[in-house]
Amino acid sequence: MAILYEQIQEEIKPLDLRFSNDEIEERVDHLTSFIEKQVSSGDFDGVLIALSGGIDSTVTAYLAVEALGSDAVHGLILPKEVNEDENMSDAECVAEMLDISYETLDIDEIVSEFLDVYDVDTSESDDRWEGRHVGNLSARVRMTLNYLVGGFENKLVLGTGNRAELATGYVTKFGDGGVDCNPLGNLYKQQVRQIAAHFGVDKSLVQKTPTGGMVDYGTDEEEFGVDYDTLDAILALHIDGGVPAAATARLTDTSREVVAHIRQMHEQSTHKRTPPTTPEPLI
């Protein structure tokens, strides 16, 4: 087993959700078996992963290679102008480290074509939500390319979202949320980092500040309003564990307003985690 990094070994506050060493081995086996079953049940030739250079897509790629071997894993790197060059370089490094095939497709021109068709001028707008719509469009362009390439290559499209992102709706519906399966979907962020360290992922990637990479609005944690460790704790206690809001606020050393904000994010994003609804049939 790889030596865990200092920040993984130290106590995580306000709530330590990490696995024991035995549990890590068990969880990795469980996740790799899950990937194998998803591929075999659909008679796919392997998996496709959109590599962002972040920790989630990196861990997903490591799990896929562990499950299927490098020849069965294909990476797509889909840069946009807002992405830092560092992210794309990290994505390439991950692909080369794992010896998986990959290709880079720039999506800016495709996104611009959509905006030209709809005749949207975003250059003079200060509307944050208009920018978010363009960010969602970018995510959906990436999803479309994932399935285009995945279809030609007969590859299952693996999602890379973790529990914190999925539970708060920090995904684009039919964008990065449009995947065949999500191996990390039940893992809190600190658990993803721990598994990354278990695999020996470079320390700089484990500690890297996560960003959405669609619009230039800062980091994930700035979007949430709390750091990931606190978000994990609120989700584990209040959303997943049923601990009352007031007790959760005390246990996480936050305010009830923060807990209520996370709960609101969870409730308002229910539609992203469920199939499209239909009316009850008339009898």
Protein architecture, described:
Helix 5 (108-118) crosses helix 6 (128-153). Strands 3-2-1-4 form a four-stranded parallel sheet, sandwiched between helices. It starts with 5 loop residues before the first helix and ends in a 10-residue tail after the last helix. It has helices spanning 6-9, 21-41, 55-68, 85-98, 108-118, 128-153, 163-168, 189-199, 203-206, 220-224, 228-239, 245-252, 256-268, 270-273, and strands at residues 46-50, 73-77, 101-104, 155-158. The chain has 14 helices and four strands. The chain has a single domain (6-209), classed as Rossmann fold. With 283 residues, the chain is an alpha/beta fold. 41% of the residues are buried. Strand 2 (73-77), helix 4 (85-98) and strand 3 form a beta-alpha-beta unit.
SSE blueprint:
Blueprint: H1 6-9, H2 21-41, E1 46-50, H3 55-68, E2 73-77, H4 85-98, E3 101-104, H5 108-118, H6 128-153, E4 155-158, H7 163-168, H8 189-199, H9 203-206, H10 220-224, H11 228-239, H12 245-252, H13 256-268, H14 270-273
Parallel strand pairs: 1-2, 1-4, 2-3
Helix pairs in contact: 2-3, 3-4, 3-8, 5-6, 11-12, 11-13, 12-13
Organism: Halocatena salina
Catalytic activity: deamido-NAD(+) + NH4(+) + ATP = AMP + diphosphate + NAD(+) + H(+)
Protein name: NH(3)-dependent NAD(+) synthetase
Characteristics of this structure?
6% strand, Rossmann fold, ATP-binding, four-stranded parallel β-sheet, alpha/beta, ATP binding, 14 helices, 283 residues, globular
